Amino acid sequence: MKAVGFTRYLPITDPASLLDIELPRPEATGHDILVAVKAVAVNPVDTKVRAPKDKVEASPRVIGYDAAGIVAAVGADVTLFKVGDEVYYAGDITRPGTNQEFHLVDERIVGRKPKSLSFAEAAALPLTTITAYESFFDRLRIDRNGADAGKSILIIGGAGGVGSIGIQLAKRAGLLVITTASRPETIAWVKELGADHVVNHREPLAQQVKALGHQQVDYVAIFNDMRHWPDAVELIRPQGAIVTIDDTHHPMPMDKMKTKAASLHWELMFTRAMFKTPDMIEQHRLLSLVADEIDAGRLRSTLAHVLAPINASNMREAHRLVETGAAKGKVVIEGF
Q: Which domain of life is it from (predicted)?
């Protein structure tokens, strides 16, 4: 089967950073389903895993953490899907990735593909949707059904993949959404997705948010990097909560967090699959719930760029777009 992989960790400008390869078709056993992959998306985690380092793989490594496709085979223990079902999912970072024609994935982290979306539109959603959903409803304990309506959230990184679906989920829960963007096209994008206010992440955030009339916010979601930590701490209300998805190399002083009795939460959407947690099926449930919301017209895909077909050349271009921050929303590659 066709796949895109690599053996050396090289800059994306190097043609050998991602290569067209051939691999044996895997077989489904246990709780695994075998998916005929129709579209994949590229996320910052893809570029981080592939980032240059002094290491050489003995055999080609395949990455990729978003896919939409059709179930081609099922393991003996599978109960949630059957051959022919259309699905979407983000996979497991500890297993081979989605950048291959046929991919094995545990059924418990797979959702029913939204009927109203193309495979490309669906592939744009899983990783970022799981991340935003778990950040808000599992980590921050925001009530998904509106009990926290009227509360405020600052989403830092609103135009990215996680922020783009996060804005929609927050608005669906009834929150007032303040988010960040700096370019005219990204400002227009986040407003189109439902943001109530937009502030420039290239300028001090706390001052801008306060100028909007919000001296404090109930929640902060840091969906890009931790350089905005001081602003997040300044703006969070006493007993409020901050969630972040970023690895931090910046100082994170906690004295004001202690004074405010504010809480900090980490989100990693791979945790449930990595550790086979007892509740890993929650990712199946949340993806299927979001599919229902999309088919009802209450949420939309965050697809912004499509490349075709799925090959090394287009994969390198997708990685370049994500690495340089040149893309809003999600970058998807479709069709082997």
A: Bacteria
Question: What are the CA-CA distances from residue 277 to residues 26, 260, 269, 291 (Å)?
Answer: 25, 32, 12, 23
Question: Cα separation of 100 and 249, whole Å?
Answer: 33
Give the contacts of 14 (CB within 8 A, at least 6 positions apart). Answer: none
Query: With 70 as the cut, is the pLDDT of residue 220 above it?
Result: yes
* Nearest partner of 109 among 80, 84, 143, 86, judged by Cα: 80
User: Burial of 127 by CB count in 10 Å (0-12 exposed, 13-18 middle, 19+ buried)?
Assistant: buried
Q: How far is it, in rounded angstroms, from Cα 218 to Cα 226?
A: 19
Are the beta carbons of 37 and 100 closer than 8 angstroms?
A: yes
> What's the mean pLDDT in 10-21?
97
49 membership: H or E segment, kind and range: helix 44-50
Residue type, 178: I
Q: How far apart are CA 335 and CA 309, in angstroms?
A: 5
Would you list the DSSP string of 58-69?
A: EEEE-----EEE
